What does this fold into?
Amino acid sequence: VLTAEQEGRIADIRDEWLRIGLCTEPADRRAAEQGVHCIYRAAWLPPPRIIWQDSPGAAAVAMVITAGHEDWSEQHMSSSQAQQYWRVRAQRDAELRRQAEVDWQTEHKVSEEVYWPLVRQVEVIGARVQEQVQAQMRAHENSELWDQVYDELYGRKHFPLPPDQPVWMCLPSVYSGKGQRGIPSYAQWAAMEVLGVPSPVPFHHDPLVARKAGCWWRSRAPGGGVIVTDRPSRLKRDGEGHLHSADGMAIAYRDGWGFWCWHGRRVPRWVIEEPTVSRIVAEPNAEIRRCAIEVLGWERFASDAGLTLVGSCPDPGNPGLDLELYDVPERLWGSPVRLLLAWNGTVELDGSRRRFGLTVPADIAGPLAAAAWTYDDPSSQVRMTPELYSTITRRT
Amino acid sequence: MERTVTAEAVLDLLAAEIGIPVITGRPVPQGDVILIPADGQVPAATVPLPSAGAELARGQGGHVHLLLGRVLWAPGPEGAQSVGTVTVPQGETGYLAHGDGSPVSALSRDAEHGVQAFGPGTWVVRRQREQASEVRRVSD
It folds into this structure.
């Protein structure tokens, strides 16, 4: 059971890491470098050469350019002194964790309040960035280039190492390319420390880098070294926390690298900046088509694409205005749906009134049933029927 | 002696002044959020709503649908389409305000959705949904 004071401190830790994960200030390069040095020192390694890059895109290219063939992992596996040290530390920490006597329900509660919100809000952004780097490399004419980068970024070659090797464990960021993507774990460990549970030893210094810079990886350049990236300069999200921007890139870095997103889905530039019906029809990916239709706006799409009107009726929530239901060709949307077009309840400041479109299942027969469906919840005892919807008050 | 005026008191006055009807027994929509009368269909809420209100939904420019009033509130599970249950005691009024998250912003002229007022009873607060490749909550 958590005390009120512990609950407060745990909420503060989550909020602090949320701010860090969504930060768009330039990296604090000196502090980040000190963090990297701490990680190397803890592993009995000399301070590495640090190569700064302005974006993950630039970092991926830099890795390919600097890639060498030194077998770095074996070199450090040979440090028996370090292995011995980490083994002792790990045993001591396991003992401390036992003594803290935190039951699993409490640990579960902490992860519900700290770990999972940060996965949904922050880690997901790192995942989109990683996908974008991958997609760019795959699109490159030289696919070997991508294979090399993949090895660099995700350490495929290193995973056959035995999992009980503490020296391997003590450089987790360097192997898995975490940094910002480790934020949910760093916050969870910080929260568990409030309950007296120490962080796993090999990871003690990882949060130092994540606090001050973007993602970072070990470089296999001759002589070693790590590549550290700056943070984004622009990061736009929707109300649900998904990367999203209707004007320009959703995430952009100081060297101009970045990408466009619509409610969390990475989309090509044209979808956000120049959507047209002809481009939408030519787009093979259904999800991208859907995004582009939403960017274009359902009203414009319904007229430009010549959708068929199924029916219309007065909107009970908007006296004097109609609800309209249209058929949407399945080849356009990718799944069978109908489109409900309604008018906004509130007039804009300039006196105009906007329309909005919502997609509903294709088996809904009429506009009133469609409007009711949008407010229904089959998992609730309280259902919204067309009859109840027709008694609705004026929508604001 | 200093006196603090609560957001509820201001809203009560304004609602009366500008003639916002206090609705009972009919669904009350505000953008992509709706209140559905649910007396006897779900357990009444029992915990007083904090005076800062409860955020029901947050839209793209950071706009918030805010629940206000001397009412009782039981939030639903995170991410659910039915976001909670609100019970208005006899003699009280609940409010749906839309703004930057502060009660007063809901009264500004450029608020996207007007204030809604609702009367005694138990109501289910629900988000709107749409059919994309799967069913999802609407975020306006």
Remarks:
- The CA atoms of residues 328 and 380 of chain A lie 29 Å apart.
